[in-house]
Amino acid sequence: xxxxxxxxxxxxxxxxxxxxxxxxxxxxxxxxxxxxxxxxxxxxxxxxxxxxxxxxxxxxxxxxxxxxxxxxxxxxxxxxxxxxxxxxxxxxxxxxxxxxxxxxxxxxxxxxxxxxxxxxxxxxxxxxxxxxxxxxxxxxxxx
Length: 143
Prior knowledge:
The chain is built from four helices and six strands; from the N terminus they run H-E-E-H-E-H-E-H-E-E. The chain has helices at residues 3-13, 34-50, 68-83, 102-115; strands at residues 16-21, 28-32, 57-63, 87-93, 120-129, 132-139. By secondary structure, the chain is of the alpha+beta class. The mean pLDDT is 89. The longest helix is centred in the N-terminal third of the chain and has 17 residues, at 34-50. The protein has a four-stranded mixed β-sheet with strand order 3-4-6-5, covered by helices on one side.
């Protein structure tokens, strides 16, 4: 159908002539209410965004000489984050002479991993980053 004829037909019906496939030869067009189409498309996109879950990275910081109860509190906090579907970054800060004993920090992070093993799996193993050692734990998929 010629473009002029299609435009006249759309104007007669009070609708818009929308170019669906401009790269095709000849162009593919549709007669529709464009505002209604854009409204429905925005509504579908909003609904899709509402059903999406964004994964945040929560951080749990510890020092190397942490006490058992404080350690348990940090583990419980991390487990809560993992059950909520977030990733957890566990970091141990080294201050002063503690830098000479980074192996003890690795032992602490391994103990932390064992405590969280039921709900989380290691994403990135423990690695030194400046004056701190960090590892990432991601939640295990729900069964």
